[in-house]
């Protein structure tokens, strides 16, 4: 099961974190952009080339440290098909470096449309009797608030292709309580019900470490709810956004973990990608600055949760 591979990588590197690859041109050193613009002009092609080179530098620096990366589709889609090719090439490069790739697409639809999303991001696409992987990530973030019709089409693909999903449960954004905290007839908040569905859906994808292939997205910006859900959802592995630029810290993320230091992977994006700017580092050392920030994050979380044991 795919999340078993993630859990094993977390334990091997003693690092329960994932680096978000959400690049903007503002994050990229000038020399990388200038090189791309000389070759392709100030075009979508030039932007995509700069992003890919930047990402490769980040991946090279981080692959000994982090077990996983998480590219956010929107940061590539905004640069058209050229950006989507950069997403494909980023995923391929990360997997070459033996990193687990969580594609952050937050896809949601039903039936054959969700099957198409599953084929695109987790499975294979058929072309006149031949099949090929379109993007090839290891896991995909999805929105389950359309109900089971939007989740069940993914499970067969996950089982066949050894992939996983992370379902939005209690998201890190400030206004998530407007909808996700609404009380249902029994008095429980909506996010709890979504979490229980993750447990049920996960029965189809059991894992050898007690966690299924259906994970949950629960933000570090809501530490009380994070701890509550950890106590309720014993078989659901968490993807925890909100660390760093959104205000969450190691103490906020700690409730996501159980006594063996397992149970979650914590994401940081801007704090890692922009570390060279915050640290006043020379632009050519942007990747070294990212590695330093990733190590700092790892050490802060391990201080709170202790050694990770399978």
UniProtKB/TrEMBL annotation:
Gene3D superfamilies attached here?
Aldolase class I
Q: Which GO terms describe its molecular function?
A: orotidine-5'-phosphate decarboxylase activity
Instruction: Supply the InterPro entries for this chain.
Output: Aldolase_TIM (IPR013785), OMPdecase_AS (IPR018089), OMPdecase_type-2 (IPR011995), OMPdeCOase_dom (IPR001754), RibuloseP-bd_barrel (IPR011060)
Report if keyword Lyase is assigned: yes
**Which residues carry out catalysis?**
106
Q: Does the keyword Lyase apply?
A: yes
GO BP field: 'de novo' pyrimidine nucleobase biosynthetic process; 'de novo' UMP biosynthetic process
Keyword list (alphabetical) reads: Decarboxylase, Lyase, Pyrimidine biosynthesis
Q: State the SMART domains in the record.
A: OMPdecase (SM00934)
Give the source's domain of life in one word.
Bacteria
Give the record's pathway. Answer: Pyrimidine metabolism; UMP biosynthesis via de novo pathway; UMP from orotate: step 2/2
Which reaction is this enzyme known to catalyze? Answer: orotidine 5'-phosphate + H(+) = UMP + CO2
List, for all copies, the residue spans of the domain called Orotidine 5'-phosphate decarboxylase: 16-290
Coiled coil regions, renumbered to chain: none
HAMAP family named among the record's database cross-references: OMPdecase_type2 (MF_01215)
Family that this chain belongs to: Belongs to the OMP decarboxylase family. Type 2 subfamily.
User: PANTHER family per the record?
Assistant: OROTIDINE 5'-PHOSPHATE DECARBOXYLASE
Q: What is this protein called?
A: Orotidine 5'-phosphate decarboxylase
Q: Which gene encodes it?
A: pyrF
């Amino acid at each position: 099961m795919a999340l078993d591979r993630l859990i094993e990588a977390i334990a091997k590197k003693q690092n329960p974190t994932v680096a978000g690859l959400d690049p903007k041109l503002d994050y990229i050193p000038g020399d990388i952009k200038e090189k791309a613009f000389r070759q392709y002009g100030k075009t979508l092609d030039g932007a995509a080339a700069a992003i890919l080179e930047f990402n490769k530098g980040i991946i090279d620096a981080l692959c000994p440290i982090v077990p996983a990366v998480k590219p956010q589709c929107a940061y590539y889609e905004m640069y058209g098909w050229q950006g989507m090719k950069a997403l494909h090439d980023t995923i391929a490069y990360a997997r070459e470096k033996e990193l687990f790739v969580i594609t952050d697409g937050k896809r949601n639809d039903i039936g054959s449309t969700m099957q198409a999303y599953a084929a695109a991001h987790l499975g294979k696409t058929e072309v006149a009797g031949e099949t090929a992987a379109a993007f090839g990530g290891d896991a995909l973030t999805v929105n389950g608030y359309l109900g089971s019709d939007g989740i069940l089409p993914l499970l067969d693909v996950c089982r066949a292709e050894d992939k996983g999903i992370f379902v939005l449960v209690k998201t890190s954004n400030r206004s998530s309580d407007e909808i996700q905290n609404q009380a249902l007839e029994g008095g429980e908040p909506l996010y709890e019900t979504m979490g229980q569905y993750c447990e049920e859906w996960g029965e189809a994808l059991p894992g050898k470490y007690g966690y299924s292939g259906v994970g949950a997205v629960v933000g570090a910006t809501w530490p009380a709810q994070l701890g509550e859900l950890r106590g309720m959802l014993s078989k659901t592995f968490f993807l925890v956004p909100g660390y760093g630029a959104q205000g969450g810290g190691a103490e906020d993320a700690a409730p996501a973990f159980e006594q063996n230091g397992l149970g979650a992977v914590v994401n940081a994006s801007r704090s890692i990608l922009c570390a060279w700017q915050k640290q006043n580092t020379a632009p050519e050392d942007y990747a070294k600055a990212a590695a330093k920030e990733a190590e700092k994050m790892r050490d802060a979380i391990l201080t709170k949760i202790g050694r990770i044991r399978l």
